[in-house]
Amino acid sequence: MPLFKRPREDEAAVRTIERAAPLGEYEAIARELSAWEFSGQRREMLDGERYYAGDHDILRRRRTVIGEGGKTFAAESLPNTRIVDNQYARHADIKTNYLLGKPVTFACPDAKCAEALGKTLGADFMRTLRRAALTALNCGVAWLYPFINGGGELQFKMFSGAQIMPLWKDAEHKSFDTAVRLYFVEEYAAGERRLVKKADIFTPKGVLTCVFSNGAFIPEGGRRCYVNAGERGYNWERLPLIPIRCNAHEIPLIRRARSLQDAINILESDLMNRMQEDVHNTVLILKNYDGQDLGEFRRNLMTYGAVKVRTVEGHDGGVESLRVEVNASGAETALKMLKRALTENVKSCDAKDDRMGQTPNQMNIRSMYSDMDLDANAMETEIRAAFYEILRFVSAYFALTGRGGFSPEEISVIFNRDTLINESEAVENCVKSKGIISDETIISMHPWVEDPAREKERMK
Questions:
Q1: 87-100 and 254-276 helices cross at what angle (nearest 10)?
Q2: What's the pLDDT tens digit per position in 220-244?
Q3: What is the per-residue pLDDT for 147?
Q4: What is the C-alpha separation between 428 and 450, in angstroms, rounded?
Q5: Contact criterion met (CB below 8 Å) for 12 and 49
Q6: All residues at 6 or more sequence positions from 426 whose CB lies less than 8 Å from its CB, including other chains
Q7: Are 240 and 227 within 8 A, CB to CB?
């Protein structure tokens, strides 16, 4: 069934009404968008992208002390180191590169179809797909938008999950016929730069761009078709938004990592603060103390490292010191524990794992990758489902451009995971397999061979 359809003739009248009248039919969508914009779900998506970029909560931390009456106040004179040890971004990159670090390949029964598919879904698409997978980890879901550029080529654009609000028809999030993209555009008015909040409303009839202000849509022009071929406009028969999920429940990685990442930042920052407080390494103990209340005493102790006392008739006065040592070894142990807990919670791996010491065998490497491999299987399942939709749009594009369509069921998508291996052990196993299995299989499993067919020709 083709994915393109011509707009009806009466849609011109609809465009005229949209230009002139308020969008009463979209009032319910505007209310949904207002609620979603400030929802906890979207805030978590934005936090995932913010943490990946290195903007952590520790950067807004202030050091406080207890003052008079037990109240806290900011102590500007104390060192306030804000260290961002971005382990979250490190593991997000590791998980993305493990699954999509190498290009996805396609197995097609038709050589011409395979060549055309390789050109359409080439390096540019693979880069977009990798960005979408990384965004899906940060937000729980990302979106691919197929479009035909000015040169007549099919391309894909990536939208963050924090930009797209789909109106799902079912609880499993499998079907929807309306979605809204919320974004900001820089505009200049009277020589001043300002940010304008806009919304693209995607429907089966086309896309409508509006200004979103005070919880209402203000249309800019009329509804547009998704595809323009010459003077003709076409719409896809299904909404051109393809979800890329990191898991079936669309749970972002930041939910499992945030508390541990914050603890790592706080621990390292506090350790550096203690090392910088050289004047506070010695706490003065003044005998025969009286005078200030406990709140003022604690404030002076925290701020100056000393307190002022009086003697009683000049007797039993004196000053003693108490040396406070920074327990760096204890902090190092706690930091190692937190980083390991973060690795386990996000289901990633650590190349500095004890199992990688000396010369690890393949079983040790597989054990190190086991958690990440299971998590990658779940994400691969979601991306395979997305590829079925991607290939449907590619088939419709081929049919439109006269290249002949194909059935997505005929295409096999192969994910080439980027896994560490013990090359010496792998080569030894290939040598031992000689005479037991075919040379073609041995060549394909050899770690130094990238193109088995080309390698076979070289051997001849």
A1: 140
A2: 888 899 887 667 788 888 899 999 9
A3: 92
A4: 18
A5: no
A6: 362, 445, 446, 447
A7: no
Both tokens of 211, joined, read 């200004």
Q: Which two tokens stand for residue 237?
A: 């028969």
Token couple for 106: 């396609």
Sheet holding 4-5, edge to edge: 4-5, 232-236, 227-229
Report the alpha-carbon distance of residue 81 to residue 70 in Å, rounded. 25
- Across the range 208-217, mean pLDDT stands at 92
Does residue 215 have a pLDDT over 80? yes
Of 403, 416, 417, 411, residue with least CA distance to 387: 411
CB 198 within 8 A of CB 185: yes
Q: Closest by alpha carbon to 52, among 90, 83, 81?
A: 90
d(CA 407, CA 305): 76
Residues in the chain: 460
State how far the Cα of 427 lies from the Cα of 243, in Å rounded to an integer: 40
Looking only at the bridges linking them, the beta strands covering 192-203 and 227-229 are: unpaired
pLDDT of residue 343: 93
Whether 307 contacts 300, CB under 8 Å: yes
Query: What's the whole-number average pLDDT of the chain?
Result: 82
